[in-house]
Design a protein that fits this description.
The protein has 265 residues and is mostly helical. The protein has twelve helices and no strands. Helix 3 runs antiparallel to helix 7 and helix 6 packs antiparallel against helix 10. The protein is globular and about 55 Å long. The mean pLDDT is 84.
């Protein structure tokens, strides 16, 4: 019994070291050659999210319920940036990290998990930096910061499952998957809930909108930012169940293409 626990603990330590090493390598590969170095990991989502927020702020239009316009789009578009980044990079997981797979301890799932944990952490930090700036300029600090953190983490976990499905399809030989994913992530913007709230929709459409798990996630994140000033529609159980289903399907898909993985490099 004791030896079994020790093996589990030691296995967890090894896995933790592997994931940390992969994240550091990903940081260096993706951002280390930029003049701004690792700062770019935060600047990229901040520039995009901040630009969208600034654009809507200077347009002068108000939001229902009196929500701060800049904060609304920061906590809307920046998590969507995470959604888009994870899905768009999914198909490159193998080729971009080919040397790593000669190490017995490193699996494809390890690389994907490390990438997505890194993306989740940087996007979360970027959100709070931008919201912190708004707070200094006279805005309000998030009503429940933990909800924002949890909401972004669930978004990342949900996208992780889809990323496994995309990678599995790519390995299986669906060469057009990567070409389809990029326009799909843009066309999905109106349907994810990034820029709309459920209570803005006609009553007869709200039930249909809530079938989409990402709408629950954005509502949950906004609840963390603004608190009980407007009505929200989210179900934590539904979000977690949808995330679990997508991840199980992703793992099954990766298992189905394991043979092709072994011969792909």
């Amino acid at each position: 019994m004791i030896s079994g626990v020790r093996q589990i603990v030691e296995g967890g330590r090894v896995q933790s070291r592997v994931l940390t090493a992969i994240m550091l390598r990903e940081l260096h590969t993706r951002f280390g050659r930029h003049h701004l170095g690792y700062l770019w990991v935060f600047l990229e989502p901040m520039i995009l999210g901040g630009s969208i927020a600034l654009l809507h702020y200077v347009s002068g239009h108000d939001l229902p319920g009196g929500m701060d316009v800049a904060a609304f789009y920061i906590v809307g578009y920046t998590p969507y940036y995470l959604f888009r980044a994870i899905l768009n990079r999914a198909s490159t997981t193998v080729m971009a990290n080919l040397p790593l797979f000669y190490h017995r301890q490193v699996s494809y799932t390890d690389v994907m998990l490390a990438r997505h944990v890194l993306d989740c952490a940087t996007v979360t930090i970027a959100i709070f930096i931008m919201i912190g700036v708004l707070t200094v300029l006279g805005g309000e600090f998030p009503h429940d910061p933990l909800k924002i953190v949890v909401g972004v983490a669930i978004m990342a976990a949900f996208c992780h499952g889809f990323a496994m499905l995309i990678l599995a399809a790519t390995i299986w030989g669906a060469e057009n998957v990567e070409r389809l994913v990029h326009p799909f992530t843009y066309l999905m913007i109106p349907f994810t809930g990034a820029f709309i709230m459920v209570w803005w929709l006609p009553t007869e459409l709200q039930a249909y909108a809530l079938l989409n798990p990402t709408i629950h996630m954005f509502e949950f994140i906004r609840d963390g930012q603004f608190g009980p000033v407007v009505p929200y529609h989210w179900d934590l159980g539904y979000m977690l169940a949808a995330t679990a289903v997508v991840n199980v399907l992703g793992m099954l898909a990766m298992r189905a293409v394991r043979g092709r993985l072994a011969t792909s490099h």
